[in-house]
UniProtKB/TrEMBL annotation:
The keyword rRNA-binding does not apply. Residues 1-22 form the signal peptide. One of its GO terms (cellular component) is cell outer membrane. CDD domains: SusD. It is found in: Cell outer membrane. The keyword Cytoplasm does not apply. This is RagB/SusD family nutrient uptake outer membrane protein. It comes from Maribellus luteus. Gene3D superfamilies: 1.25.40.390. Belongs to the SusD family. Residues 386-512 form the RagB/SusD domain. Keywords: Cell outer membrane, Membrane, Signal. Residues 55-237 form the SusD-like N-terminal domain.
Length: 512
């Protein structure tokens, strides 16, 4: 009777999961890939099948804009002091007033999107060595597996920072039969794994990926290269569970050895080029392209071109390639007064005009309609989405130096990004002590990386959530009233309730 009950749950779960398949054509079966002589389904029948699946993996970041980018900015910017939700509703407002619950639709799609991506990486990692095709060389097998492991690490890094203890899935569930159900059940309903173990798996994937992934290509920053692995290693070693600032410095320096450095003009990272530069922006229409792709500062990015454009741009403001397109309703990620005040405290900061733009619009939820600010780092359908860039890693090196008491070394790094922004070096008072240099450091990361999905995670990593976020509601007149105060349980978010309902082995995070 118990077996029948489990089978019915599994059937219901699998039926529900069908709607989450992002690439049904990529799903293997005995129809698409065939079976072996012992009737075992073949996952990849030949090299061509492997290459098709590899391409799917390489495009995961680009095609998953909702959970990779749109919702990540809602969390990292609107759930911090950088932005308001922008378009108040049941899904977005909880992030700005700290009332997020497990029923939040955005969190559900993020969880499902990430887990679907993990499943696709696991398929290649687990089955590429079984491909019976002599044209698929050992070097290619190692490279493609390394790329998949780097991608899996990137996915889990986002997941563990959002939810803490999450299921660690590194295998592919087999078919369900009466003989295999006891073995298969945990694969379909995995329990949570503690965050430290998740980080250790991320570390292992990145170190293994680093051995065989391709070298950085200056002409193509969409690849899961050794440099992507190095950047992620620098970021995970800055996090509390694995904190090792010596390794942060090591991988930051290795990235410099790979040829990464700051571009001279900050505007090149997010700017656009007008076909007719003398025409006012209000008259531009479809006469635009990204100013630059594959810069020496970009480590990993998704690129968009005519025919395959970046649709999320109109979620944040005006898409400059089509001035009036979808500009009739409220946009997400409205820059906060507190962030604008911080930008204005540094007179002449060139990053301000690249991060915030003011338009006239038809709504006045947070600001007067005739002078309304919008997030500006994704301004046309051809702008790249930059997941990793060198300035982030370089500043993490400054954080590592601060931890070692090398305040002058940290200031020298901070001054690099400041000078690029048109600002003078930090005053000598900034290096007078730990508190002073940390304030300068956090402010610099905030301005340099505004609207790039970093702010919330910086506050969490450095234990600044309560100090910063419980104070911002009183000093930022445009932010709606705080529902719950931030505390130690606020550092991770609730697991989607629908996911818990489907998986009896999951437990809700404390405080939700």
């Amino acid at each position: 009777m118990k077996s029948k009950y489990i089978l019915s749950i599994l059937s219901a779960f699998l039926f529900a999961a069908c709607s989450l398949d992002y690439d049904p054509i990529d799903t293997y079966s005995d129809v698409t890939e065939g079976v072996s002589q012992d009737s075992v389904p073949v996952v990849f029948k030949d090299k061509a099948a492997v290459l098709l699946h590899r391409q799917t993996l390489l495009e995961r970041f680009k095609n998953g804009q909702e959970h990779w980018y749109l919702d990540m900015l809602l969390l990292a910017e609107s759930h911090s002091d950088n932005a308001y939700a922008g378009a108040p509703n049941a899904e977005t407002t909880p992030f700005e007033v700290n009332s997020i619950e497990g029923s939040n639709i955005n969190l559900r799609r993020d969880w499902n999107g990430h887990m679907a991506n993990v499943a696709q990486t696991n398929r290649l990692i687990n089955f590429i060595d079984d491909v019976n095709d002599a044209s698929l060389t050992q070097a290619e097998r190692q490279q493609y597996k390394a790329e998949a492991k780097i991608l899996r690490a990137m996915i889990y890094f986002d997941m563990v920072r959002i939810w803490g203890n999450v299921p660690l899935v590194t295998t592919v569930a087999g078919d369900i039969t009466s003989e295999t159900i006891k073995d298969v059940y945990p694969a379909y309903f995995p329990p949570q794994t503690d965050a430290l173990t998740i980080y250790q798996q991320i570390e292992e994937d990145l170190l293994e990926g680093l051995q065989y992934a391709p070298d950085n290509s200056a002409a193509d920053k969409t690849q899961l290269s050794k440099s992507v692995a190095r950047a992620l290693l620098a970021k995970i070693y800055a996090e509390k569970p694995l904190r090792d600032y010596d390794k942060v410095i090591k991988y930051a320096d290795e990235l410099a050895g790979d040829g990464f450095e700051l571009v001279e003009n900050f505007g090149d990272l997010f700017g656009v080029t007008l076909t007719d530069p003398n025409s006012p922006a209000s008259q531009q229409n479809k006469a635009i392209d990204a100013k630059a792709r594959n810069t020496k500062e970009t480590i990993y990015e998704a690129q968009f071109f005519p025919g395959n454009t970046n649709w999320v741009t109109w979620m944040y403001g005006r898409p400059l390639n089509d001035w009036t397109f979808y500009f009739t309703w409220l946009k997400w990620i409205t820059p906060s007064r507190d962030l604008i005040k911080t930008f204005n405290s540094e007179v002449g900061d060139k990053r301000y005009q690249e991060s915030v733009v003011f338009y006239q619009c038809d709504w006045n939820v947070y600001y007067p309609a005739d002078n309304y600010p919008f997030m500006y780092k994704c301004r046309s359908a051809y702008n790249s989405i930059i997941k990793l860039r060198y300035a982030d890693i370089l500043l993490l090196k400054a954080e590592a130096l601060i931890s070692k008491g090398d305040y002058n070394g940290a200031a020298a790094i901070i001054n690099q990004t400041r000078r690029r922004a048109g600002l003078s070096n930090l005053p000598s008072s900034a290096t007078a002590g730990h508190e002073q240099i940390m304030q300068a450091y956090l402010k610099e990361r905030r301005l340099e990386l505004a609207f790039e999905g970093q702010r919330w995670f910086d506050l969490v990593r450095l234990d600044k959530v309560e100090e910063v976020m419980n104070a911002v509601y009183d000093k930022d007149e445009g932010r709606p009233a705080q529902v719950y105060p931030f505390n130690s349980l606020s550092y991770i978010l609730p697991i989607p309730q629908d996911v818990i309902d489907q998986n009896p082995n999951l437990v809700q995070n404390p405080g939700y």
